Amino acid sequence: CLLMPLSCTSPPRTSRFFSPKTPESFASLMIRVRRCGGGLHDWPGKPGFELENHGAADEYVHVWTRAEGKKRAGCRPAEKKRGGKGMIADQTLRMAADRRNLLVGAACSPHLIAREPEYAQTLAREFNCLVAENCMKAAYVQPERGRFDFGPADRLVAFAEENRMRVRGHTLVWHNQMPEWMKTAGFSREEALGVMRDHIRGVLAHFKGRVFCWDVVNEALADGGGWRMKSPWFQMIGPDYVEAAFRFAREADPDVLLFYNDYGMDQPGSKADECYRMVRDFLDRGVPIDGVGFQYHLGVENHLDRSACAANVRRFRELGLAVHFTEMDMGIRKPITDELRSQQASEYANRVGIALDAGVSALVFWGFTDKYSWVPSFTKGEYDEPLLFDSSYRPKPAWKAVFDALAS
Ligand code: G3I
Q: Fewer beta carbons within 10 angstroms: which end of the chain, N or C?
């Protein structure tokens, strides 16, 4: 009943009420309501207290004791001691993001976590969220029909849990990194819908409660407008594969947040308009969707107009959807100079500014060290150094710019 006056108008979709053990504990409760902040990560998970999700995307009510609130305003002793190379102890992206109740995340690999202590330490120190760069994609989790392999993905989720990080799920339905069997068996429309449903069910059941949101469909829109018709999913099922995927995902897990994720809509333009029309149509017709992921894979030369980009993102928020920036990186065209590195820093600050202006609740980078990024190989060596730490895990000017923008 304490929460009732704070409730949103819509009825709770998931109602797991907190239950303080004694009446006295009410007196010390600090209640904090965050709307559309996606701050699930700061839920302390104390026994006797639970989280209430009021149904609208990313709207949560957080409740914890005054004592817990004070403790969190500082930081844990273990974190205080750990400053990495060239880092000031106590100043991490994670702490700056925590203070804003934002998620700051990075794409990563369980193999590198296991192999390179500095990789794992930097990831856990700097980020409160992670996403699998590859190991949750269909080719890896269902290499043969009906045989799921969650080994690497499980190790990644365990690492996140050990380090109190949230996990974004990436991705259920995509035209790339599908296992061969899934795209070449010549399935009929009905069979393909069954394959998709079984894949989504299998993955969501496995990660239920441990992955807080999923990129249900990735990159279904074509660069030139309309659907990406070369996608095996489009070819097997037709354009309604996208909404079918969202419906299967909601059936499989009523609680997890469901995102559409794409690139090329980071600035106002035809692809962003197309995506806007698609998700508005989904909402009008009751297709379950909670959020949109803007990837933000752009080179440093792409200066973004802060207010125009924020307005572009905000219109999605105004539909009641959560927005995450999901795959940020910023390659620099070679030859790379210090001037270009400074330009990269200010463009990164600009992107954080767009996110903050538009109420984006998660900022996820597609990697964090220049030692490991898809950019150099994808651009055939034309671009490099796209991330916040250099290849020796030293923070770059870009890191400082992002930290300052978050801390300001
Ligand atoms: O798994 C094989 C391994 O067995 C083999 O030895 C090795 C040799 O090259 O290749 C490995 O597969 C590579 C895989 O990444 C895992 O490392 C593929 O060749 C490579 O193409 C694949 O690239 C990934 C790419 O998606 C696939 O399209 C990138 O790492 C990953 O960063 C990238 O991520 C995508 C997002 O999921 C969606 N948005 C765009 C983004 C960038 O393309």
A: N
Which residue's alpha carbon is at the smallest distance from atom 15 of ligand 1?
A: 134
52, 93, 366: which is closest to 215 by C-alpha?
A: 366
Q: Could you tell me the two tokens for 266? A: 């980071």
pLDDT of 9: 34
H helices of 46-106, where? 66-73, 77-81, 93-99
Give the model's pLDDT for residue 185: 87
- Site to substitute for ligand 1 among 136, 177, 369, 383, most atoms within 8 A of C-beta: 177
Provide CB contacts within 8 A for 146, sequence distance 6+: 198
199 contacts 244 by C-beta, under 8 angstroms: no
Provide the pLDDT for residue 135.
98
> Which protein residue's CA is at the shortest distance from atom 16 of ligand 1?
134
pTM (two decimals):
0.83
* Cβ-based neighbour number of residue 335 at 10 Å: 7
